[in-house]
TrEMBL record:
<keyword id="KW-0411">Iron-sulfur</keyword>
<comment type="similarity">
    <text>Belongs to the class-V pyridoxal-phosphate-dependent aminotransferase family. NifS/IscS subfamily.</text>
</comment>
<dbReference type="GO" id="GO:0051536">
    <property type="term" value="F:iron-sulfur cluster binding"/>
</dbReference>
<dbReference type="InterPro" id="IPR020578">
    <property type="entry name" value="Aminotrans_V_PyrdxlP_BS"/>
</dbReference>
<keyword id="KW-0808">Transferase</keyword>
<keyword id="KW-0663">Pyridoxal phosphate</keyword>
<dbReference type="InterPro" id="IPR015424">
    <property type="entry name" value="PyrdxlP-dep_Trfase"/>
</dbReference>
<dbReference type="InterPro" id="IPR015422">
    <property type="entry name" value="PyrdxlP-dep_Trfase_small"/>
</dbReference>
<protein>
    <recommendedName>
        <fullName>cysteine desulfurase</fullName>
        <ecNumber>2.8.1.7</ecNumber>
    </recommendedName>
</protein>
<keyword id="KW-0408">Iron</keyword>
<keyword id="KW-0479">Metal-binding</keyword>
<dbReference type="InterPro" id="IPR015421">
    <property type="entry name" value="PyrdxlP-dep_Trfase_major"/>
</dbReference>
<dbReference type="InterPro" id="IPR016454">
    <property type="entry name" value="Cysteine_dSase"/>
</dbReference>
<dbReference type="InterPro" id="IPR000192">
    <property type="entry name" value="Aminotrans_V_dom"/>
</dbReference>
<feature type="domain" description="Aminotransferase class V">
    <location>
        <begin position="4"/>
        <end position="368"/>
    </location>
</feature>
<dbReference type="GO" id="GO:0046872">
    <property type="term" value="F:metal ion binding"/>
</dbReference>
<dbReference type="Pfam" id="PF00266">
    <property type="entry name" value="Aminotran_5"/>
</dbReference>
Length: 375
């Protein structure tokens, strides 16, 4: 049975070239980057070289890149420190954010009484930019805007430049959860005034357990965890040198191959839409119909009973897809994202999140369609 992986928004395979670099480091570069003798200094050089490679992709200084363990950690750290250390009193966000942001801002509201404002969501799954602008005009409280770049369930893409310039014009900080877009689209932080972004290597064919945060120099955050002087004391703990090196290699490859892979992935998505429409003329594509090029959220015209069994049946045939974000895919509860803009009737129907990668082929889509036809 051929295994078909259509859940690249949950995680991605590690590129063979990345694995090779990581194995080299594991074999040969076991020094602690904080040690002052030769093998320690060499490990440190590997970490700093990786930081430079990453910083270059975003046109920023390498001192603005801090390594973390994942996207969740980066989001938690930035949001918490913005409230505790930068005096943020109001957070503007949406109910479409990943739980790494949503649950964090709710916690900050409970702990520090920071005001939370949730933007309205339009039927297209987009935010109302005019509402954001109106809210930002009130500059009476230090404000942070946290909005994700690409939604992990429906692929809705934020207009980064528009939000960044609105925030800049009204002296608000802008944190963007870029976990789904890093490595899939270019972001020039020299020309886009975003204060903070976060990344997670396993979303762009790098290893799990490593990510990074960009913290613009003018914003001086404090650590949430205390220990050694690694990462300028902002993120103590011995660096996973092989993971850092693997992440930089994965990011570099993602951007070197971006145009070619984007064209391929977009063509797979288009093929999938066409094939779905052939089988289910009534199929709907949830959210912004154009969406980001690697995510397709599909509302299938099937009954509730069929919906309950669908993921299981697909899994039995070797097909990996999800109903929402990976952490919710086992849950029968409606997605917190879809429930923001679908009607109650549609929420009962099965929605599938298909997310494509450069390894997918049209044959994968044909296999998916053949199985869906039997449900
Ligand atoms: N933010 C978004 C938009 C995500 O899609 C994810 C993972 O699915 C995260 C944050 C959390 O990232 P990590 O799994 O690296 O903690």
């Amino acid at each position: 049975m051929k295994h078909v992986y259509l859940d690249n928004a949950a995680t991605t395979s590690v590129r063979p070239e990345v694995i090779e670099e990581m194995i080299n480091v594991l074999r040969n570069d076991y020094g602690n980057p904080s040690s002052t003798y030769a093998i320690g200094r060499h490990a440190k050089a590997l970490v700093e070289n990786a930081r430079k490679i990453i910083a270059k992709q975003f046109n920023v200084s390498s001192s603005e890149i801090i390594f973390t363990s994942c996207g969740t950690e980066g989001n938690n750290w930035i949001l918490r420190s913005a409230v505790k250390d930068l005096g943020i009193k109001r957070i503007i966000t949406t109910k479409l954010e990943h739980h790494a942001v949503l649950n964090t801002v709710k916690q900050l509201n409970a702990e520090f009484g920071v005001e939370l404002v949730f933007l309205d969501i339009l039927p297209t799954s987009e935010i109302d930019y005019a509402q954001l602008e109106e809210l930002l005009k009130d500059e009476s409280k230090p404000t942070l805007v946290t909005l994700m770049h690409v939604n992990n369930e429906v692929g809705t893409e934020l207009d980064l430049k528009r939000v960044a310039s609105l925030c800049e014009a009204h002296s608000a900080l802008f944190h963007c959860d870029t976990v789904q877009s890093i490595g899939k689209t270019k972001i020039d932080l020299a020309e886009t005034p975003i204060d903070f972004i976060v990344a997670s290597a396993h979303k762009f064919h790098g290893p799990k357990g490593i990510g990074f945060a960009f913290i613009r120099k003018k914003n001086v955050l404090k650590p949430v965890m205390f220990g050694g002087e690694q990462e300028k004391g902002l993120r103590a703990g011995t660096e996973g040198v092989h993971q850092v090196v693997g992440m930089a290699k994965a990011l570099e490859m993602a951007y070197d191959l971006l145009e070619e892979e984007k064209a391929h992935i977009s063509s797979i998505k288009e093929y999938c839409k066409d094939r779905l429409l052939e089988v289910y003329p009534d199929v709907c594509f949830n959210g912004n119909n154009v969406g980001f090029y690697n995510i397709l959220n599909v509302l299938l015209p099937l009954s509730e009973e069929k919906a309950a069994m669908m993921l299981f049946q697909l899994d039995m045939k070797g097909i990996a897809v999800s109903r929402g974000s990976a952490c919710q895919s086992g849950s029968q509860k409606p997605s917190h994202v879809l429930s923001q803009f679908l009607c109650a009737e549609d929420l009962k129907k099965p929605s599938l999140r298909l997310s494509f990668g450069h390894e997918n082929t049209k044959e994968d889509i044909d296999i998916l369609i053949d199985v869906l036809k039997t449900i």
